[in-house]
Amino acid sequence: MLYKDYPYTIQAIRRKYITDYYYYLINYLNQSLNININIVINIYMIQGKLKNGLTYLLYDLPEYKSVTISLTIKVGSIYEMSKQKGISHLLEHMVFKGTKKYKNSQDLMFLLDLYGAQYNAMTMKHLTSYYSQSLCTTKIVKAIMDILCELVFFPKLYKSEFAKEKNVVLDELTNLQSNYGSMVYRITDYIMYENTEYAYPIGGFLEDIKNIKYKDMVNYWETFYCPENVYLTVSGKLPKNIKTIINNIFNKVPKKNNCINGYLDNICDKHLTLPMQTESKFINLKKQIASSYLQLSFPVCNNYNKDKYALDLLSIILGNGSSSRLFVELREKHGIVYMVSTGTGYYETVGNFSINIITDNININKSMSLIIDILVKLKGSITNKELRKAKEQMKSKLILGMEDTSQINNFLMNQLIFINKPSCVKEKEVFKINTLDRVVKIYNKVNINDIHNCIDKYIKLNRVNIGLIGEYNKELITICNKLLNTTE
Description:
By secondary structure, this protein is an alpha+beta fold. The protein has 18 helices and 12 strands. The protein has 2 domains: 250 residues, 2-Layer Sandwich (Cytochrome Bc1 Complex, Chain A, domain 1); 213 residues, CATH 3.30.830.10. Helices cover 43% and strands 17% of the residues. Helix 2 crosses helix 8. The two termini are 21 Å apart.
């Protein structure tokens, strides 16, 4: 065991695509020569950059009745150094306390509610995002965009609110400790991403939050919340003068001389690059609970690698849906799990492929054995029938998700945030924004050989990371030790 205790007390209508050559040329002019030219991805989607460096992506969908707007900052928990853990999430809370124009949180919330907006914010490992979904009148779009601009670029960050909001965040983290489904992800990340910034939980640990100083938070905001490091995405039925609205609201934001744009380049090799894993790891967070929460995670490629498409389909084949291999074996044949699922996640320099189950304590040993057996037999066994089914499931998931402008905006935002690759990323192909149709085509091109190559490359039992919350016994340790000693 690595350590004893875990330390925490479109709707899509087919459009004509621009040529790759045109995309690469404009992207080069925008990023390398700092020339601001709009990229017309199709007649309804435009990517551009303002004079102050803010990047935007607009997707006009005239058939919709709502619009979703998000301002996303390229900063999250992986940007935090040792004395800053949890500061991104704390800052996300603090900006809602009032801005230069809207003096307190009550004024802000009243206006958002007045316009019938559904709003929230989130902090992740690689980003912080503030977003709102509302009706698509010009008046409402202008008002919501102005509020989001104020939150990100002109927050007051009242010192008098700092201690109080710290307590709110501490309560949130304390409550999270009893959310075992979430905690098993945290402890598994902790061992899989060992010695990198990806290992640490997004919200930090309790002691980290207690030690954050007000001045440190203000400096953090000044460093990262600058237009060159912010991405605006707007999806839905857009006003005809949307670009004028954007210019009028966001061009008033000045550039910051101390802005760290491209910060990942400075920390990439030392803090974000994961060495090749040479042995399996196991961690157990001991809890006296009726159920066991188990996760097996494999380190895989980053977000810029095309292997991710084959890995996504493999995830569906293994554990997505009632006809998946793990569900049929663990749930239907043996009836020993409440929940079984698989998933993938990709960041700038790393990625993960995970299997999760929830089961009674008495069934954890058998569940582990069955999962290992399925993984051992995986190599070379995927059929064309399974692959066709996985492609249809993926297509359905993507298209049905695009019935909502908030999902469309999330789909686009999660691409836009990756357009500037860190220098340590080996993949050299220019990263471009894909429409839904293009993503579906990419998945459709994945073949059996691609799936089996990814199994050979990534699903290695001597590189698995096992996280368990619940009781354990000697038999389970024996099973894990056999896995830990597996060589390939």
